[in-house]
Specification:
- This protein is α/β, with parallel strands linked by helices.
- The chain has a single domain, classed as Ribokinase (UDP-N-acetylmuramoyl-L-alanine:D-glutamate ligase), CATH 3.40.1190.
- It has 9 helices and 14 strands.
- The strands form 4 sheets. It has a 5-stranded parallel β-sheet with strand order 4-1-9-10-11, with helices on both faces.
- Bound molecules: adenosine-5'-triphosphate and potassium ion.
- Adenosine-5'-triphosphate binds next to helix 7 and helix 8.
- Belongs to the carbohydrate kinase PfkB family. Ribokinase subfamily. Belongs to the carbohydrate kinase pfkB family.
- It catalyses: D-ribose + ATP = D-ribose 5-phosphate + ADP + H(+).
Length: 303
Amino acid sequence: MKKITVVGSISMDLVTSTKKIPEAGETIVGQSFSMVPGGKGANQAVAISRLSTEKTSVTMLGAVGDDTFGKELILNLKNNQIFCDNVGTIPQITGIAQITIYDNDNRIIIIPGANSAITTETWTQEWETIKESELVVLQNEIPHEVNLQIAKFCKANTIKVLYNPAPARKTDTEMLDFVDYITPNEHEYKDLFPDLSLEDGLKKYPNKLIVTLGIKGVALHDGTQFQVIPAIPAKAIDTTGAGDTFNGAFAVAISKKLEIKEAIKFAVIASHLSVQKFGAQGGMPTLKEIKGHENYEKKWNLE
Ligand SMILES: Nc1ncnc2c1ncn2[C@@H]1O[C@H](COP(=O)(O)OP(=O)(O)OP(=O)(O)O)[C@@H](O)[C@H]1O
Ligand SMILES: [K+]
């Protein structure tokens, strides 16, 4: 069976909320603390799995550290029906994101740990997995060299690549020739193409560059014209994971052979549903939930 493979980060989000930010040398008592599985790679794999009809049709490649977070995160992937036998455990710490919620805003410190130690040097089965994939999904929380190698391999083997250049890196443009879809948000777009207006950049990469604009929707050039596919307004509770949900849903729709604009519309419904629930993975909808939405189109036939 053809599958989607996600190669990317697997991290634990350590979320603290506080009414005060301590000064240097000060200790304060905060409001609450929780640990939630995260990492853009793992998040997108979960988004894909929730929308898949077959079990373990998504494979995760990446690495965790030899610690308790690593074990928990692998368990979380398995609980989400993600095939993760080839996720490596390496003598490192597992990646973490320390998130402080203060005054309705996030302050985030990321320690990439094992995510930044991923190397393809030891890969054998991993290349086979990629070779058997229909679509490979990449983000920017693992080393650029790894992404580039994978993208080149996929190009040589005519495997489609969806590349979500988040967070932005200076080297991102090196990926452009080797990927089929690239999905920056507005800010990442500006980092990618500082000298090009949105319309000009999209025109240069028709049906390939897809820019998510938050509540304003999603922009692309379809070869004929510039278009914005509107977002669906929602009573947003927590927009964390909107982008990951968008990418995961888009990947599923593309792998089911939906035309690009239809795939975007499907992903817009998914991300609209995701912002109405807490957490990145916590808010990711199932296929059933999307099918229950009034904007779902029967012709999509995503079974
Ligand atoms: N408040 C919202 N209401 C409805 N839909 C939203 C909202 N925010 C985001 N979306 C949907 O999610 C898509 C992706 O959002 P956005 O462009 O903010 O990505 P992002 O910056 O990668 O997200 P994040 O980093 O928060 O996960 C948007 O194109 C839109 O369709
Ligand atoms: K959410």
